[in-house]
């Protein structure tokens, strides 16, 4: 209708971000506010023999010190997703205590909290807390955690298994198909553990107001309402209507700020004890130690092909680390967000995945951008690429041969996979065709052969992907173990002057909601984008909300707003009809006004809004006001897809990988703001490149994290990445009103295997078949020498 | 981390034995050790300061001499605590006479560090141990 959807409108929020005017939790200073510092375990596994706080309590400025022996030690944060064992038993769910009690189970686990007048005083006093430990053996690798005699993370169970799980066709049937396949490709690898590294460390302020008997928790979270629910109903057992959770600007989450962390609950408990506000902001070291990590799968997988290169079966066994406790969404990541994507874009008729999820002596592992889907895509795309090369086939051709034929989900039904999901709509060949065109695939192979003669090692790697986004249908996720619904809430509050405030339960931490959502509203209402304000991140402003993750903001949150706009226009039409003395059916709405069809009689949106709030001359039976809220619960996930291609050059002397080009063709359904989608793809791709080439959390044999700073944990920098070339096809989502699919995670999902495939391609003629991520120069060089 | 090495000294084994088990000398020659105070037979309270890459810590804890075989071998156990993390080292030392006036010291053991010390310092630990051992033997040579 209007002029905003599909335009690269500049981001409204960037003015404050770029001028240092953002309102992050650590920027907030409340009167009388105290500061917290934690005493953390230096051991991965130890008995706590004694904690002596006497010297610390005497230190200057100390207000209070609490340990696991205080009342707070009885509380723990819950897990939000239940996965059952294959035999039907409920997963093992240890309490994740607010402060360690009796035992510590990972390096960095909090043992005591010190509250003082200033941050420096709190930190100084924390150093005076004496803790006696008896160190115990630890296990950090998920496969080793399942071996006989492995140190137990939780003594109450006979082994470290949190749960086991499987999905797909009957295992015996899959094995039979593999046994009779023309060719079987097998890979064993580790999808390494990553630290999320949001630019803003986690930060919380809890403020108990005795006069109102109310708490306010300011938190750097991706989902304030869900935190309030988990905090009140599960962690502390305090009344939900007495707690306000505020999450203004958040400097990146990537999944790591979805979860309800122990510090949120602990600070909320502490503020009432001390009768003053209390703040804690993680330093970078604490972020490495205590932000939930991502990935960490030990994988063995087989893909069987027929003579023509058609996939006949796929089988995988994975050990997926949970860490010491079950974080909010942890059990869902290597299961329902992972195994359900094993169909990929291919017609594979037989699929089976077995997952063993053990506890390990590490910080919990949970969703990290892509969450389970990058791991699935890595598995599929490394296998199909390797299979093609082993059979002497072209890696692009083999993919075309296996693609699911196009279906729009309207005239053709959705595609039922072997692994539970039904894809909404898809047209897969064009994305790969376009990406190949962009990279000039035909010519590249000639260039590569030529370069090889001159001793230069060029490689090209393809990856295609599909992801399940817009994480929602409550009934579906409920059946899969989610302990919450996954709808979204959107309220459109039209002011008497015709200005519009939108209250969304979705949350922005870099995605640009204030622009994208405003574009939708301005477009649908035919008003100026400046007349629309997007409000989020405050449990007392938006009615409810499920927050932002799983690329759900636009598909679910945007759709909720559209539903409310439709209600506004429906009621507005009644008021307009009354004012214009016409029938509702005779009106049309365009350019911000209702017009009686075929006449020049019209009334503007603003005049109707004013009438709604000053209802002197008003239609009978219509309530005053123009304010609607909607809960939108979609019928299915959305399924964006795409193709990524990386071109690399490997230095023959040092093994250093240089990315020459990175090309993407994504299909995220309809696009509201192409610039923002490009930005999401750029950021995601760089994160995917980070996993392929640079990043990795390393624990030593005693469970010490030895990659706990930027000296040892390499993040991608501008000079590690080329200009990212993006294009798109559009296959609208058939089941949401905007036809959108979501773009937040696509880049991360597609990029990693493309880069690794490219490096292996560059070195294939040297006998290199696989290299463990991250592909550091040392590892690539070793592989080139036949030592990997 | 495994620590192994050897060093040849121009002194008879009996003299080397005496020197390395003399707390006053040990205090003087061990790099990083500030004080070594006897708490009991073969048991000392040690205070040390060590720089490990970007982190510098003041350590306090016990030093034990165990499994002594007069003039031949012993085990040094160093259990140190600091605000940056803890360190535990168990090093076996063996004196092998090469000639009347020369002795080979062979040492081998394990050092474990924890907490921030491990996080920030693990990568440079091997190099630091090498440097400290070198300093120790150079200083010991001067005492002989």
In terms of topology, how is this protein built?
The complex is a heterodimer of chains A (788) and B (144).
Chain A: H1 14-18, E1 34-40, E2 46-52, H2 54-58, E3 62-67, E4 76-77, E5 96-97, E6 103-104, E7 110-116, H3 119-126, E8 130-135, E9 161-168, H4 171-179, E10 183-191, E11 203-209, E12 214-219, H5 224-236, E13 243-246, H6 262-274, E14 278-281, H7 284-290, E15 297-305, E16 311-320, E17 351-358, H8 373-390, H9 395-402, E18 415-416, E19 422-423, H10 429-439, H11 441-453, E20 457-466, H12 474-479, E21 488-494, E22 500-504, H13 513-525, E23 532-535, H14 553-580, E24 587-590, E25 593-596, E26 602-604, H15 605-613, E27 627-632, E28 641-650, E29 657-667, H16 674-694, E30 724-728, H17 746-763, H18 777-784
Parallel strand pairs in A: 1-14, 12-13, 16-17, 22-23, 29-30
Antiparallel strand pairs in A: 1-7, 2-6, 2-8, 3-7, 4-5, 9-17, 10-15, 11-12, 11-14, 15-16, 18-19, 20-28, 21-22, 21-27, 24-25, 25-26, 28-29
Helix pairs in contact in A: 8-9, 8-17, 13-14, 14-15, 16-17
Chain B: E1 2-9, H1 13-20, H2 23-29, E2 33-40, E3 43-52, E4 55-69, E5 73-82, E6 85-97, E7 103-113, H3 115-143
Antiparallel strand pairs in B: 1-7, 2-3, 3-4, 4-5, 5-6, 6-7
């Amino acid at each position: 209708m209007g002029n905003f959807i599909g335009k690269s409108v500049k981001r409204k929020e960037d003015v404050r971000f770029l001028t240092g005017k953002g309102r992050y939790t650590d920027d907030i200073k409340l009167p009388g506010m105290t500061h917290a510092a934690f005493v953390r375990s230096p051991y991965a596994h130890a008995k706590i023999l004694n904690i002596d706080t006497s010297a610390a309590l005497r230190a200057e400025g100390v207000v209070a010190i609490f340990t696991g022996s205080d009342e707070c030690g009885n509380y723990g944060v819950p897990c939000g997703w239940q996965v059952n064992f294959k035999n039907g038993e409920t997963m093992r769910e240890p309490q994740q205590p607010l402060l360690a009690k009796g035992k510590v189970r990972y390096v960095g686990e909090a043992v005591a909290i010190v509250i003082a007048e200033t941050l420096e005083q709190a930190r100084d006093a924390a150093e005076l807390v004496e803790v006696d430990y008896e160190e115990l053996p630890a296990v950090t690798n998920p496969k080793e955690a399942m071996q006989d005699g492995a140190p137990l993370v939780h003594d109450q169970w006979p082994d470290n298994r949190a749960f086991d799980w499987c999905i797909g066709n009957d295992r015996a049937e899959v094995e039979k198909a593999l046994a009779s396949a023309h060719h079987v490709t097998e890979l064993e690898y580790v999808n390494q553990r990553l630290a999320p590294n949001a630019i803003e460390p986690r930060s919380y302020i809890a403020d108990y107001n005795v006069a109102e008997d109310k708490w306010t928790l300011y938190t750097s979270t991706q989902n304030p309402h869900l935190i309030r629910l988990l905090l009140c109903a599960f962690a502390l057992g305090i009344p939900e209507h007495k707690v306000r959770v505020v999450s203004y600007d958040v400097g990146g989450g990537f999944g790591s700020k979805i979860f309800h962390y122990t510090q949120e609950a602990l600070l909320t408990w502490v503020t009432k004890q001390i009768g003053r506000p209390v703040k804690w902001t993680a330093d970078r070291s604490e972020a490495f130690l205590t932000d939930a990590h991502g990935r960490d799968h030990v994988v063995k997988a087989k893909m069987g092909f027929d003579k023509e290169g058609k996939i006949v079966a796929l089988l995988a066994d994975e050990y997926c680390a949970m860490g010491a406790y079950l974080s909010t969404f942890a059990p869902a990541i290597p299961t329902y967000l992972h195994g359900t994507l094993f169909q990929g874009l291919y017609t594979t008729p037989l699929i089976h995945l077995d997952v063993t999820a053990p506890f390990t002596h590490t910080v919990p592992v949970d969703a990290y951008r892509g969450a389970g889907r990058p791991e699935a895509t890595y598995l599929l795309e490394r296998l199909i690429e390797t299979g093609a090369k082993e059979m002497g086939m072209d890696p692009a051709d083999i993919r075309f041969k296996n693609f699911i034929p196009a279906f729009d989900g309207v005239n053709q039904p959705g595609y039922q996979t072997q692994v539970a999901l039904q894809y909404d709509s898809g047209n897969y060949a064009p994305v790969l065709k376009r990406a190949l065109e962009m990279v000039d695939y035909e010519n590249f192979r000639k260039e590569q052969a030529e370069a090889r003669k001159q001793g230069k090692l060029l490689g090209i790697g393809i990856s295609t992907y599909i992801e399940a986004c817009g994480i929602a249908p409550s009934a579906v996720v409920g059946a899969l173990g989610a302990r919450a619904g996954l709808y979204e809430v959107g309220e459109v509050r039209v002011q008497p002057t015709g200005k519009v405030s939108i209250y969304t339960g979705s949350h922005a931490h870099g995605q640009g909601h204030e622009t994208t959502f405003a574009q939708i509203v301005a477009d649908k209402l035919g008003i100026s984008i400046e007349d629309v304000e997007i409000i989020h991140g405050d449990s007392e402003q938006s009615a409810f909300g499920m927050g932002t993750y799983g690329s759900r903001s636009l598909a679910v949150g945007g759709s909720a707003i559209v539903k409310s706009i439709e209600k506004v226009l429906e009621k507005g039409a009644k008021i307009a009809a009354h004012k214009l003395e016409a029938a509702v059916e005779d009106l049309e709405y365009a350019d911000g006004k209702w017009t009686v069809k075929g006449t020049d009689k019209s009334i503007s949106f603003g005049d109707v809004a004013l009438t709604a709030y000053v209802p002197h001359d008003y239609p009978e039976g219509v309530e005053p006001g123009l304010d609607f809220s909607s809960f939108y619960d979609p019928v299915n996930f959305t399924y964006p897809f795409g193709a990524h291609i990386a071109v690399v050059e490997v230095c023959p002397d040092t093994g250093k990988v240089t990315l020459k080009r990175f090309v993407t063709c994504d299909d995220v359904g309809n696009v509201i703001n192409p610039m923002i989608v490009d930005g999401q793809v750029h950021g995601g791709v760089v994160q995917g490149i980070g996993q392929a080439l640079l990043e990795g959390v390393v624990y030593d044999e005693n469970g010490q994290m030895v990659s706990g700073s930027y000296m040892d944990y390499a993040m991608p920098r501008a000079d590690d990445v080329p200009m990212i070339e993006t294009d798109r096809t559009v296959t609208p989502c058939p089941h949401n009103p905007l036809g959108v699919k979501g773009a937040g995670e696509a880049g991360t999902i597609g990029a990693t295997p493309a880069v690794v495939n490219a490096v292996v391609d560059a070195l294939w003629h040297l006998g290199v078949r696989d290299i463990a991520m991250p592909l550091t120069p040392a590892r690539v060089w070793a592989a080139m020498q036949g030592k990997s | 981390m495994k620590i192994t090495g050897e060093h040849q000294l121009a002194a008879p084994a009996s003299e080397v034995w005496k020197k390395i088990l003399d707390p006053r000398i040990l205090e003087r020659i061990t790099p990083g050790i500030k004080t070594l105070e006897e708490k009991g037979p073969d048991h000392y309270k040690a205070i040390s300061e060590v720089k490990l890459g970007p982190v510098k810590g003041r350590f306090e804890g016990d030093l034990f001499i165990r499994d002594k075989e007069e003039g031949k071998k012993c085990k040094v156990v160093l259990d140190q605590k600091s605000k940056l993390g803890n360190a535990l080292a168990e090093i076996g030392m063996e004196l092998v006479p090469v000639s009347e006036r020369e002795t080979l010291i062979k040492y081998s053991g394990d050092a474990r560090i924890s907490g921030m010390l491990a996080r920030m310092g693990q990568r440079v630990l091997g190099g630091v141990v090498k440097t400290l051992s070198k300093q120790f033997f150079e200083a010991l040579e001067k005492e002989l």
